[in-house]
UniProtKB/TrEMBL annotation:
<dbReference type="InterPro" id="IPR001296">
    <property type="entry name" value="Glyco_trans_1"/>
</dbReference>
<feature type="domain" description="Glycosyltransferase subfamily 4-like N-terminal">
    <location>
        <begin position="26"/>
        <end position="182"/>
    </location>
</feature>
<dbReference type="InterPro" id="IPR028098">
    <property type="entry name" value="Glyco_trans_4-like_N"/>
</dbReference>
<feature type="domain" description="Glycosyl transferase family 1">
    <location>
        <begin position="194"/>
        <end position="359"/>
    </location>
</feature>
<protein>
    <submittedName>
        <fullName>Glycosyltransferase family 4 protein</fullName>
    </submittedName>
</protein>
<dbReference type="Pfam" id="PF00534">
    <property type="entry name" value="Glycos_transf_1"/>
</dbReference>
<dbReference type="Pfam" id="PF13439">
    <property type="entry name" value="Glyco_transf_4"/>
</dbReference>
């Protein structure tokens, strides 16, 4: 369907578009993992994104990355953005970038960049793929034009089923689960390094519950703190929160009000989250009010941890209830507290569930399977 010219050296140039926050989160890490492992003998990536933090990481893995504002024409109450002048300016810049880099396909790593990407693809007569990480509203599916992409990829069956109920997609849709590196990064430790715990003020005897992710309302960290305060198992149980976000101060005040501030530790954003899974946590929790998939659960499971997650979004696709972990009803702090108490009391159960979580991660969320699936979706359009 495209008028692209197959490169003489057998390599296709693909322009990846990404719009995100300054912190590197799930969609950013998935993009980094993908571009780190793409077969460069087939696909040469070029990236335009709006954040310097992501650009720096991409340059580190030898990907050409350009920081550029991706404008919006979006009607959303107070957050309405009608960046018409910037949109026209960007259209010109993107056109030059596509010509200069002989781009064969545009890959939008979220819905918003597809708004500009759609027109660029049609103007340049090249295909557009859109990778959807969240269940956008019907209005955004139309406004950002990703319903018209030549291929739409969803991160979970939940996201796909939610979206296809809202709009009719013009072309093929597919679910491709995110993948993680279970070989070189996320794997159970050979030995439990107590020195890492000690550097954080934790003892080898502490039973540590943890959540890794943004400190915002949707991640449900307040639910976890509330449940933690209900646990009656002694003073050697700690709660570790790895991440940053707008709710941090409110969460600290909540821990203080509930009388557990000395047992709830905030460590901020960390790049070495694999070390926390391997050497700090005994139990991993994701108490989200909404979650597209739940990448941190997969990572923790791959490291041999039992996982507990809310029964929402794509989380039931990554936790096999009462096998690799527990599922609890959203906002149900009593149910969560009961599940955590059971895991605290039963180290054998923790070990058994962790082993199952490792097996599930390898079978269902393998990084190279993810990369090959994305490569296939790209090359089949060229």
């Amino acid at each position: 369907m495209s008028n692209t010219t197959y490169q003489g050296n057998g390599i296709h140039n693909v322009l990846f578009l990404h719009y995100g926050g300054e912190s590197l989160r799930g969609s950013e890490h998935c993009l980094i993992n993908l571009l780190s492992n793409l077969d460069r003998g087939k696909i040469n990536p070029v990236v335009i994104c709006n954040r310097i933090s992501l650009c720096k990481r991409l340059v580190d893995i030898k990907v050409k990355a350009i920081k550029y504002h991706i404008p919006q024409v979006t009607i959303e109450g107070r957050n309405t953005k009608l960046e018409f002048f910037k949109w026209i300016k960007s259209f010109i810049f993107f056109s030059k970038t596509i010509r200069a880099n002989k781009i064969d396909l545009i890959y939008s790593n979220s819905g918003l960049p597809a708004q500009l990407g759609f027109f660029m693809a049609r103007y340049s007569q090249i295909p557009l793929i859109c990778h959807i990480h969240a269940p956008h509203s019907r209005r955004f599916a139309w406004m950002w034009l990703f319903k018209y992409a030549d291929r739409v990829i969803f991160v979970s069956n939940y996201i796909k089923s939610t979206m296809v109920e809202k709009v009719t997609f013009s072309n093929t849709t597919k679910v491709v689960y995110n993948g993680i590196d279970t070989v070189n990064r996320f794997f159970p430790p050979n030995k439990h390094k107590t020195i890492f715990r000690e550097s954080l003020g934790l003892s080898s005897d502490d039973i540590v519950i943890g959540q890794v992710g943004s400190l915002n309302y949707l991640k449900g960290v307040d639910i976890l703190i509330d449940a933690f305060a209900k646990i009656k198992t002694g003073h050697n149980v700690k709660l570790v929160l790895v991440g940053e976000g707008p709710e941090e101060q409110n969460l600290k005040e909540l821990a203080s009000r509930l009388g557990v501030k000395d047992s709830v530790l905030f460590f901020g954003y960390r790049d070495d989250i694999d070390n926390y899974y391997k050497y700090v946590l005994n139990i991993k929790v994701l108490a989200s009010r909404f979650e597209g998939l739940g990448l941190s659960i997969i990572e923790a499971g791959a490291c041999g941890l039992p996982v507990v997650g809310s029964r929402c979004g794509g989380i039931p696709e990554v936790i096999e209830d009462r096998v690799s972990g527990f599922l609890f009803s959203v906002n149900d702090t009593n149910e969560l507290a009961e599940q955590l108490s059971e895991l605290i009391r039963n180290p054998a159960l923790r070990k058994k569930m962790g082993k199952q979580g490792r097996s599930l991660a390898k079978q269902k969320f393998d990084l190279m399977t993810y990369v090959k699936n994305i490569e296939h979706e790209i090359t089949r359009l060229l």
